[in-house]
Amino acid sequence: MKIQALLTLTVLPLLASVAAAQPPCTNIKPEDPQVSKVSDAKRITAILKTIAVSGQSLDERLAGLDIKVELARFGKVTLEEVRGSNGRLKAGDVFYQFTTSAPGDSVTRQCPISSLFSLVKRGGKWLPQERTGNFLLNNKCVALST
Q: What angle (nearest 5°) sits at the alpha carbon of residue 43, between those of residues 122 and 39?
């Protein structure tokens, strides 16, 4: 799985909003057969409902912020990515990247987030990979160090 090509294709149109948030890992290729893409709303909701956020699901948190996930991509992290991640990734991690509707002004006033966020699933834990993921998962408007 290579994240960089995916980010290049996905992030360029969102460059202004992504500048406020740190980018996630850098190497997913959209054509990689190991990367699964989900655009069906029911399947995306099913994924989001498995992610706990302060007594609710990420699906409920996003609905409360009037943010809709339009696309989810995910795949196992490769050993090459683990070696190049400066300890951020571990063998067995699954990298998830979500493309959403643009966050409204009421949300961006709380935290300058973008319409792209990434999470890593490590065992039963979900780990944000940048400011947007950290805000959505932990309600903390803090950029994560890379």
A: 100
Round to whole Å and give the CA distance between 32 and 2. Answer: 7
Distance CA 90, CA 98 (A): 20
Q: Residue 118: what residue type?
A: S
pTM over 0.90: no
Q: What is the mean pLDDT of each run of 10 residues along the chain (146 residues)?
A: 39 32 42 76 94 93 95 92 89 94 93 94 93 94 77
Closest alpha carbon to 64 in 141, 130, 139:
139
Burial label, 105 (beta-carbon count in 10 A; 0-12, 13-18, 19+)? exposed
Output the pLDDT for position 19: 32
Do 63 and 43 touch, CB atoms closer than 8 A? no
